[in-house]
Amino acid sequence: LDSEDDSVQRCITSAMPKHR
Amino acid sequence: PDSPLSRWTKSLHSLLGDQDGAHLFRIFLEREKCVDTLDFWFACNGFRQMDRQETKTLRVAKAIYKRYIENNSIVAKQLKPATKTYIRDSVKKQQIDSAMFDQAQTEIQTTMEENAYQMFLTSEVYLDYV
Predict the structure, then answer these.
(1) Which residue from A19, A16, B14 is spatially nearest to B4, judged by alpha carbons?
(2) In chain B, which end has fewer C-beta atoms inside a 10 angstrom radius, N or C?
């Protein structure tokens, strides 16, 4: 099970713009 | 005319939709010690896109609440008390909704648009890049 920080970080990363 | 740079000055939204723009804005906010506002903004987007069926949405909602709202962080300081109460109650009652952070995100976005974004467009980080 990952930590709370990890799950927030993954949430942030999933919403970041990807390479053009 | 439609270079990334000209798009960045159009709106905060167009800046954050561009990979380099978002990266540069992040560097700027790190220096200004308010990068949490940007991370929260992206976390809200990520949360909205999560699959409702997944059991982990409650965990993630709780984690976002704890990290940015429960403590007196810069995000919490920029939110209206009613907005914080609404999110706290939603987490407590486990009433998880994909739109539960929408109001908070709007408030943070408005503050960013009026302050950090304007400062960014005249900052050294931005001007050096230009």
Answers:
(1) B14
(2) N
Contacts of B26 in chain A (CB under 8 A): none
- The answer, for A14 touching chain B at a CB cutoff of 8 Å, is yes
Residue type, B115: N
Q: Could you tell me if the ipTM is greater than 0.90?
A: no
As a whole number of angstroms, the distance between CA B58 and CA B72 comes to: 22
pLDDT tens digits for range A1-20: 568 889 999 999 999 998 65
- What's the pLDDT tens digit per position in B50-75? 987 677 899 999 999 999 999 889 99
Q: Are B107 and B79 in contact (CB under 8 A)?
A: yes
- For residue B82, the distance in angstroms to the closest alpha carbon of chain A comes to 23
Phi, psi for residue B24 in degrees, rounded to 5: -70, -40
Helices B35-49 & B19-31 angle (0-180, nearest 10)? 140
b/e map B76-102, b = 16+ CB within 10 Å: bebbeeebbebbeebbeeeebeeebbe
Helix (H, G, I), strand (E, B) or coil at B59: helix
Say how many CB pairs under 8 Å bridge A and B.
Answer: 51
